[in-house]
Specification:
4-stranded parallel β-sheet; 8-stranded mixed β-sheet; alpha/beta; disordered C terminus; 11 helices
Length: 354
Amino acid sequence: MKKITIIFTGGTIAMRTNADGMLVPAVSGDELTASIPALRKMCAIQSTQFSNIPSAQVTPALMLALRSHIIEQLSNNDISGAVVVHGTDTLEETAFFLDACLSNIDLNGKPVVVTGAMRGNDAPSADGMANLLGSARVASADAARGRGVLVVMNDEIHAARHVTKTHTSSVQTFCSPSHMPIGTLTHAEDAQEGVRFLSAARRFTPNVDVSRETLTESPPSVPRVDIVTMHAGADAMLLNASVAAGAQAIVVQAVGAGNVNLELYAAIAAAIGQGVGIIISSRSPLGVSKPAYGYEGGGKTLAALGACFAHDLPAHKARLYAQLLLANAHKHADVASTLHRGFAQLLDETTGWG
């Protein structure tokens, strides 16, 4: 029987409704696993209570600490894989962050599966137990080895790079809109047979090494990178405030393929002139950001200023990726060139983009 480690961080899966009708953290990891007899019949379980917080409280510093914890857990030869139980609001961010900074060497080729729940532990149709059981099946499956960090929800397996939460309350919320699930779960008697991947083993996120200097800080930290959204009539106040606050880089969630108005264009030019990195993403949920239009504020003119493009990453994932790139860079490295090199790797890893 294979052995997996389950790392509990909190989220709706560990919440119950209190006497005031409020959904709050209330259940430990051990209580969750004890409530699923089929889980211990399928594999041996080792569990740790890393935290018990709503995922809105998760930070990049906590993600870095979680990264170290996962490496420590998977260094044990007896452990075949890891499941991270996480709140769904920022689940895709933690999954992507971990996928970007955990190499197959760090993981010893073992899978990391991130899961959670859309309904509380005491809800009549709670989904957390099924998601946890399915995730354990994937984490112990030979076919999951070498695929990095995966997200398992609602009997679907998604790549951390592509998955996103698409609905505020539906159990079918996690999708990969520009792609497909990379695998599915079926209710076979044999747990291994029930895990079906739809493509050959590969990782979709280029790996960013994390420097020892970053990890030895207490708490571990990453550079400040902010997100500013373009909308009709947007001004430059928030972008200028980010520059004044010391942001090393700013992700501009632009419209279309990567366009902004004249006021933001002028502010972006000034920020780049001050050495602040600018990454252009799109607020559109499908497609990629890329230089397309040549009018002032269009993508081609932003590229000419020195901005780089997030390609298929939404703004919140582009921000985390930029933080990792800058945290790993030499302290005297040029911010713009570091970001351009790093984001260029996304094109090398993305099938069908470019």
